[in-house]
Fold this protein.
Amino acid sequence: MAESTEMDYKSLPKIELHAHLNGSLSTSCLTELYHMKYPNTDDPPSHINGYKILDKFIELKDCFERFKYAHDLTDTPKRLKRATEIIINECHDDGVVYLEIRTTPRATEHMTKEVYLSTICEAIIECHEKEPKNPIVKLIPSFDRSKGVNDARDTLDVVLNVREKFPGMIVGIDLSGNPENTNFPDFKPLLQEARNAGLKLTLHCAETAGTEEENMEMLEFGMDRMGHGTFMDESPDTWLTLREKKIPVECCITSNLKCATVPDITKHHMQKLLHAEHPVVICTDDYGVFDTSLSKEIQLCAKTFNLSRETIQEISLNSVRFSFASTTEKTRLEALIRDFFTQSG
Ligand SMILES: [Zn+2]
């Protein structure tokens, strides 16, 4: 088995399938947005310190609190657009060739949900026009469970409208947010409607312990990809159903460690999934909050789980397969990855 530790992870063409917009603001991005919003003030330590999780570990529910610092700075079209541009440019610098950004459309005093989504779509188009080498970028609007089903209803209407204006860009729906005191079945009709309208589904599932019943409901409902799936093996039934349905799992190691849903990297469920030859993809979740990058995450997985070059190539190609890109885009991305492994082999 060839060693993978010496691989140039930055040059590896990477596929990012799980990145929340408001969780992906780097320190320089936060600083720039802060100065746009609060000119003539000093550096923004409270925004940076409040947002980023460096060495310490926090509870998942506290993690959702971190987003308020980002929401404060992305509350106008101008700053939201700039945030999107910076994320795309930073991902490009990290060697990401395909990026799916997810975000909950948010009405603020400066914009409607429709403007929120359109602004991101416009930023994506402009980035590509300025620098065609930038990653292919798609948008996945999220239903935030904590905001309730009425908010999700409204979001879906907006999503279906905006999708018409930006063909090929809005490719799926994500279900995320703090799951506490919410019920998955409430969201089922809307998710089904989204599916019927041709949108793919990626659902955060089993992020916390003790939700076996809901996990099974979600598995039975079905999804194109699963976010985290941390506690799928809590019950033999859910584990078996996941395996049978072969639903790809988006693994975000640093996120799980810093939110303390996984106690130790050697106990991360990715190992069990790999061992079972279950499809996995490696993602960042919130590279700004967790102070990471996709290159770092892939390197961390390779080192921790002793992945061979062949396995990394397979995971990379699978990421293309499980992405919500078009067939033509998938062919191009696959070729990029194969070329990398041929040339660096
Ligand atoms: Zn997530």
